[in-house]
Amino acid sequence: MENILVPPVFRFSNTSLPSTLNHTLFLFTTLLKMEPRRKGVYGWFGMTVPTFDPENRFVASPFLSPLTLGIIRLVFAAYMTACIITEPILLKKGRRTRRNAKKFPAYFTNITFISLAWYTLPSQPNPSRLHDADRSSYFWVSGIYSIIYAITGRSPLAKYPKFLQLLHSLFYSTITTFPFVVTAVFWSLISMPPHKKAFSTANLQWSNISFHCLNSVFALFEVLFSAVRPQRWTHSLVIAGILGLYIAMAYLIRLTAKFYVYEFMDPSMMGALTAAYIFGIGGLGTVTFVVVQVVVWVKGFVGGKGVWRSKYDLPRWGIPSRMEDGSQGIEVPEKYSAVTHETSW
Fold this sequence. Notes:
Blueprint: H1 19-34, H2 40-44, H3 66-93, H4 98-102, H5 108-117, H6 131-152, H7 162-175, H8 178-190, H9 202-212, H10 214-225, H11 235-257, H12 267-270, H13 273-301, E1 307-309, E2 342-344
Parallel strand pairs: 1-2
């Protein structure tokens, strides 16, 4: 702290001001010193270092080799893709009508599920089952990237334009938040205890377990086994904004397709509780994001700070390697050498 330059207007002796005010002004000038690193949109969202993800944390794990991590991610992606393809077919051929099968893309569950499987691919997920799409997308691309990193020592993310790197970081925040929101909302509001209807048939048992239970299992795996550090708090604003846009889309669906995606969004049935449910779900998204970041921090605290690097990811001699703080939204004072906290597979 002694190397921080304090503006002349704030220079004072320890005896000239009360201790509390002294420390407060010192903290304020310290924050002023740090703030230039966060100028602009990228800095506001935590990208404060010149190189995005210099330790390749988005494609690596503290506990698994990059190859093992990539294979597991691809297995998850393959299963979720099978679910996404099979579910509308079963809806069409089962007792439910073809019209119900067409509603598949309107549910937030399905949108996030698809995204989780096909994360960051150019094609956009269907807006109806948003959370399923989100997870499927993520695991396909992150799995491929981890395998590329394992066999080359280079992450494809390093070649992305900065804007896409920011989107990748934000997308990671969504796929580690929305699945937990979906699971909580479904089993508490949509399928009321004791959940007899949710398990009334074999088809419903498989569907609800896959889309409303395993979704959170897959997301929890990413939280615990990826090397990504906690994201900056501003990502929670994006999460709240996405939830708000989905609510708007749900009412557009009501105006155009003449059905409510979820019954609790129907004011004629729920009355004033509709607004409470909507704002409550928005708040749940923010709280879930915070809880996930705390879990990631605890993981690092108990031994998950390292990165199991590819054996082809050789040190760049003469160029110090440090923890990726900017894209993770945290400040870490110490620096790490190119051979600290790493293992080769």
